[in-house]
Amino acid sequence: MTYVDDVASTLVAAAEDERAWGRAWHVPAAPALSVREVAGRACAAAGVPRPRLSTMPAPVLWLGGVFDPLARELRETQYQFRRPFVLDSSAATTMFGIEPTPVGEAIVETVGGLARRSGTRAAATPSAP
């Protein structure tokens, strides 16, 4: 998971530094967590019950893709959800000095922002578990 503020910081830094031009950069990201762990932390920050999550078997996802374009696209990216999806962002951290936002802080800020946008009240605390 990559926090949107870290994406913005990296884009600005890469645009402002001519040494960055002409190559791809991985945005600094906190250590990889499972979707289940991120969902659990987000629910804790929002003060709602933990979700019941399950995986969709590949044949069911394939069949769904016959009828639904989103399911069809998920067939091609499901590997990102079935095992750790880790990338090396050390080059951007070294070049721009950008450290990833801690996961707990990113979740609290994201849940709070979504709650404000939807007009609900989240129980987000200064640090998510």
UniProtKB/TrEMBL annotation:
This is Uncharacterized protein. It comes from Pseudonocardia aurantiaca.
